[in-house]
Amino acid sequence: MYMLIWKQDILLILFALLLPFLYLRRRTAKGKLPPGPKPLPFIGNKLPRKKDWETYTEWGNKYGDIVYAHSYGKPIIILNSYKAAYDLMESRSSIYSDRPHLIVLMELMGFPGTVFQPYSNLWRKHRSLYHKQMNQVAVKNYQPTQMATALDFLKMLLENPKDYVRHIRSIAYGRDLTHRFDQYLDLSDQVSKDFFRAVRPGEFLVESFPILKHVPPWFPGSNFQRWAKKAHDRMQATWNIPFRDVKEQMAKGNVPPSFVANSLVELGRSDESDFEVGAVKSVAGGIFAAGTDTTTAALSWFFLTMALFPDCQVKAQEELDRVTGRNRIPQFSDRPFLPYIDGLVKEVFRWFPVAPSGLSHYTTEDNIYEGYLIPAHSIVLANAWKILHDPEVYPDPMSFKPERFLPDKDGNVPRDPAVSGVFGFGRRICAGRHLAEGSVWIMAASVLSLFNIRPATDSDGKPIDVRYAMEPLPGFFCHPQRFPCVITPRSQDVVQLLNQVQF
């Protein structure tokens, strides 16, 4: 009996192994696929596990703007130009707005967030919640909280400059939820790593052969099942703990504006079994897990660029001094008068995008583009790194030049990185981009108004070369390596100025 079952399992596995290649052969007969690297027999292309954007960029330089690869018969399209990404993900968004169904992420880990929801009514519900609370006008409601967070950050920076990273991650749930904030940060960091592993193409064989999801956790070779169970528990904690803390604070009447608080007040209920409350919870978990990571990554690159390019720091501070007079902290109302600071923030996002290889889109139909067949059910990636380092749009792209975003004599400026891949493309563009960009702007402006950032010095008094930090830490959202720097007040009036500010 057991032998018969075992033979049936083998036949099913063999069939599952052959099916993708039969499918690929049928698709190839419909049209010419884009060029790409030569695949290995049976396995397909060996996909990069580290710094995938560099491999995709090399493929783009060799094969062109549209590159085709496949892993165990699963089609993968890499877009290496803004034109290709816009033409497909924007102009053809109706068939490029789905996400691949990732078995490990969605089924085994039970990921409830918006970012990998299929293009469906539930996704539209999530998206409407985002838009209502985080559109370009609505995010102004968060500016007092962002300013207060910036003030807290400045005070902590004055007391302990080495711990700046952990003080900038309170936007999603509100700055007063500090009693378990270390736990929030630990969960967010770990879930970010889990997410990165789960969404990376080619990481898990079960994504190509779904039958493997039925293999029990005790079976040899099913380590992915045990890992997914632990990741599931961590992810559920990330969604549950902060959400319930906000509800607890709301019951006490002591919670500042936040996505969760605003949404629940508007709904007039907080029962988590309610569909709309559940949607708020799912969206908020995504904001906390992903939004805090993107903001801290961008600010970490800001600190590194200021240490690496002191001339840019000086220019930014000269502009700030002209506007604020060095007797107050900059505010959002100053933004129209600080074009260099605006350019500096844009250049931070462009110079090293926090998600350089982007998130996978998924095609729902066959379509022809530039004479090539883009098959249905293809994973499609926009290589933000190459797009944002296109020398025709951003000359000398590896140099850090905030002034590139100032109007030239004809009033022209290069394309804003916010719409060039930093926050994604099409209907899947990051709904929280206005909040994230505003958070980075007020933090950068506030820090530069009061502090100088310099590289640390060695025992001989020479500046330490911190260019090694440009090699990012592993993870979906790229952070620079930790580097030594010296952060000092620009004047003796900083303490008095910080004590005078109230929000």
UniProtKB/TrEMBL annotation:
Q: Which Gene3D superfamilies match?
A: Cytochrome P450
| Keyword Chloroplast listed | no
Pathway given for this chain reads: Secondary metabolite biosynthesis
Name this polypeptide is given? Cytochrome P450
Family statement: Belongs to the cytochrome P450 family.
Q: Which GO terms describe its molecular function?
A: heme binding; iron ion binding; monooxygenase activity; oxidoreductase activity, acting on paired donors, with incorporation or reduction of molecular oxygen
**Names of required cofactors:** heme
* Nucleus found in the keyword field: no
**Record's keyword terms, sorted:** Heme, Iron, Metal-binding, Monooxygenase, Oxidoreductase
Could you say which residues bind heme here? 430
